[in-house]
Amino acid sequence: MAFPNDLRYTSSHEWVRLNDDGSVTVGITEHAQEQLGDLVFVETPEEDSTFSTGDPLGVVESVKAASDIYAPLDGRVIETNAVLTDEPELINSDPYEDGWIYRMAPDDATEVETMMDADAYEDFIASEE
Prior knowledge:
- By secondary structure, this protein is an alpha+beta fold.
- It is built from three helices and nine strands; from the N terminus they run E-E-E-H-E-E-E-E-E-H-E-H.
- It has helices spanning about 30-35, 90-95, 120-129; strands at about 10, 15-20, 25-30, 40-45, 50, 55-60, 65-70, 75-80, 100-105.
- The strands form two sheets. Strands 1-2-3-9-8-5 form a six-stranded antiparallel sheet.
- The two termini are about 15 Å apart.
């Protein structure tokens, strides 16, 4: 299982990429999509909506389960991945690139550094099993 070193991770299995412009791109981890199985539907958050850390802001549904997507930071959604409406399986095939779910403008981008790095996330998953 891959956990790219340039990303940060949450205990609810979202990944976060800090972009050069200070925004963040968010998706669910390879581990999360494997646990869910083949995704059939993704509900993305509304653009321009604001969320606090931990707020549910979307849903991913598979043939066997549905799971909330949570905000990893306080901030405003600035873009969603519209392709997922017709191709939710992109999250299964490419969770860290084409399968991103939304981008947000965080209130404080430095909070990304407080999230788990790849090694800590891998340890976290191992402790859950």
